[in-house]
Amino acid sequence: MHSLVDGNGLPLVVLLTAGQAGDSPMFLPLMGQLRIAQPGGRTRTRPDAVRGDKAYSSRAIRQHLRDRRITAVIPVPDDQKGHRLRRGSAGGRPPNFDAETYRGRNVIERRYCDMKQWRGLATRYDKHARTYRAAVVLNAVIAWTKH
Predict the structure, then answer these.
(1) What are the extents of the domains in the chain?
(2) Contact at 8 Å (CB) between 111 and 3?
(3) Is 5 helix (H, G, I), strand (E, B) or coil?
(4) pTM > 0.85
(5) Which long-range contacts (CB under 8 A, 24 or more apart) does 83-92 make?
(6) Of the candidates 103, 63, 95, which has an alpha carbon nearest to the alpha carbon of residue 77?
(7) How confident is the model over 91-135, as pLDDT tens digits?
(8) What is the mean pLDDT of residues 46-61?
(9) Residue 68 · residue 61 · CB < 8 Å
């Protein structure tokens, strides 16, 4: 289960993949699905900032965000820091990281925690992905109506 949420922890996009699929390869498809209706008619497809964990620290994701003028609030993993430092001046500058803004990333973890309170979502009783996705979407609808 891969999800984009807003600053209040309300789900905006939810995608399902196989259990062994990683998070970072699904980032670009998630961003491609992002559509936020605005009062006044224009649909918004670009958030102000993206807060992600270290799994999303890749050149492709950072370049995609830079191309779309989206602020990346993603920490750099220790192994990437080490590679850059080993290369010396050829390693380039470290990417910007705002630790204060990163503190707000816990909303996605709280969203997953709320979803996993449904036993059917936590243990995946459903045989078909279509049925499981329906339960995930129903959980998202309930979250939006409670808000």
Answers:
(1) 2-146
(2) yes
(3) strand
(4) no
(5) none
(6) 95
(7) 777 778 888 888 888 888 888 888 888 888 888 888 888 898 999
(8) 88
(9) no
